[in-house]
Amino acid sequence: MLVWSRTGRIAIWTFGAVLLAILFLAPLAVILMASFAEQWNGVLPSGVTLENYGDVFTGASGDAVWASLVTALLASLLALVTGTWAALALRIQGEHLQKFLGLLFFIPSAVPSVSVGLGLLVAFSQRPLLLNGTVAIVMIAHFILISAFTFGNVSAGLARLAPDYEQVASSLGARPSYRLRHVTLPLVAPYLIAAFGLSFALSMGELGATVMVYPPGWVTLPVAIFSQTDRGAIFSGAALTIVLVLATLLLLVGLERVPVKATAGR
After folding, report:
1. What percentage of residues in the chain have a pLDDT greater than 90?
2. What is the CATH number of the domain that holds 147?
3. Is the CB of residue 37 less than 8 Å from the CB of residue 235?
4. Average pLDDT, stretch 144-163?
5. DSSP character at residue 48
6. Which residues contact 38 (CB under 8 A, 6 or more apart)?
7. d(CA 264, CA 259)
């Protein structure tokens, strides 16, 4: 740290802890309390109940949980494959072409998600590509919004990868496909896992484009939360929010436990 005195470090850490508590922990604690609240007329809830979680995994709420998990998983896997492929392909191109095509890949992340949803709604509402009202258009929207982050993570991993390993493998007679599967991809495995985790988290929380294109039978968790809170069902919406947070957190914790070091060392 740039603060050398003990008093200054204590002040900085205290300020950081207070700021973290106010901006992150306090809102999360309020949502958690609201998810168990029966009534809330004062500073704290006046009653505690589990009824808000009663139908989380059944009926429309259960369908929303399933829709979010499937959408996030499929869109993240597709983004991981295409983002990795694009990063590997651009790696062997010239510097100027790399910068130009890399910039094109990041354009969707610079456009508001509502604009992406509106563009898809207009583009795929007529034949020959009539996707409006289907699950496919939701998958496409999520893929467009998260693919840039996957590409960025994998590109960063490849940029940090020393070429010595691949050159040694080539000198020993390894074919390009073998070198890719057994040298390059294992060495950037931490970046691949990070890219998938980030894409999954972003997809699970995506609302702007989804609310523009989702069909009636495929309501994701953010859309369900928005709908419930808009109708005044704040406590049920808070329960779904906690489910959304836990589902995303469990996946991220699980990805952190993947033994990438052992894989990269083979």
Report:
1. 21
2. 1.10.3720.10
3. yes
4. 86
5. B
6. 45, 46, 47, 48, 49, 51, 235
7. 9
